[in-house]
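QUALITY CONTROL LOG
STEP: pairwise intake check
CHECKER ROLE: data steward
CRITERIA: each record must contain a sequence immediately followed by its structure tokens, with no blank fields

ENTRY 1 OF 2
RESULT FIELD BELOW
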Amino acid sequence: MFARLLGFIARLFGGKRSEQPLVSLVILTDVLPNLPDDAIVAAVKRALPVSAPEILPGGQMPAPAYAPDAGPCRTLPVAVNRAVYGLLVAPFPYIDPADRSQDGDRPEFVDAFRRHRGWMAVDFVAGSSDDAYSVIGQIAAELIDEHTCLLFVPALGVASLPSPPLVEDMRRGVWLQHFHLSSLDHTVRKPANDPALEDARKKALSRWSEFTDAFDRRDGDNFSVKFPFAQADKIEHMWIEVSSIEGDVVRGTLGNQPAVVTNIAEGQDVERRCEELEDWLYMRDGSIVGGFSLHALLSEESP
């Protein structure tokens, strides 16, 4: 479902799906968002006072079938330096409220999804994306208020409850460390032997030295690796937040709350051998490096 929605939003701005997942931050609200365009423009200018953002002509898209009585989603493109960002204001739920298949494993996140009534989003649309996540965070920080119930990054499958420290870090452009590292595998399902995921695994292994070199130099942040975790006949694919790499052994803490296996818990110290590696990613200058399985998971829209 999330992959399908990502494609829908990308097409909204007239662009084609690229090999990169859509860079976006979604703000779920417990009221119907009703920000007029001038309020959005003011928020963008507060967020980027020295960048002289240019507001481009906006548009609308109709409400989805599950919200037939809702008004349209308003869109407002903004040019910042060499990039274009899209702001969306939707007076309807982000997903069909009747659909419980995407609930996930974090009760507080499930509660936010169930009680939200509308959403806003800041998306990177086109141009130079070197600092896309930083800019998105700065703009979104000016849209968060007491009615914000959850922040969600679809391309990374991560979410966070709003908090003053998070908002301050968003204004500074460094905010992803606040987000619960939750693999997109938990929301977009593909069989373990899917050819695209197998290709992603091979690519991650063949380019492993890129990750280790960057980690050794600390040329980035949020260094994470994905491994399978087994319990009897169950296997779950989860991310580890890396603390050290010694030879062919990776050590760190489990970044997922397991949804299938029960012999390990989020935050637990773990170690794995590199030959089991399925994926790796880290953030550099506001962009994702690696994340090959995420690209595979988002490469096709869900049926």
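ENTRY 2 OF 2
RESULT FIELD BELOW
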Amino acid sequence: MAKISADISSTEKFSEENKTTQSLYPPTAQANLDEPWCHVQETMNLLILAMAQIKLGLDDGDQKVASLGELFTDMASHQQQVNHYLATKNDTPQAIIDHGQQLAAKVNQGVMAFQFYDRLSQRLQHVVNGLGLTKEVLGDQDARHTRAAWQQVNQQIKNGYSLEEERALFDCILQGGTLAQALALYQQHLAKRQEDDIELF
């Protein structure tokens, strides 16, 4: 009896959870459809919202990163002057000179690290451009149903990529590849380019 009661309780719990999930997407009869409403317009609105959020994030980031970049650049300049002064003094302990050089190296590493933001900003700008092109073709009642229009959008997006690994990722996804496959292919092309860059030196 205890087992039967437990099974009934479990079934009732599943039924309640299922009702909650189903209530989010109630069945739609033809008579209940809103004639003026169109999912395309809703999609366009969400695309614009995504573009706005990304642009705001980029604008905020540009200001903060620019300030930090200037700060680190100033620190590097001042540290270089301090190290030069210490090196001209005969009584400066070698340990102090070594610490100054190490600090200068760390500051320079910090300056170089800010370059990552340039790449991040460029990637997000590609996303904004792609969303904008998608929104435009969806907004055209004729173009959104033609293959040529979508092919043109895809080509415009691809033309915006400057790196071979980005174009490889794009082609993989457009050919039906999974996210994991596309990212793996990107890493392969990136590793090859880095190896080629090393060989040049």
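INTAKE CHECK: passed for both entries
DESCRIPTIVE NOTE, ENTRY 2: The two ends are 79 Å apart (CA to CA).
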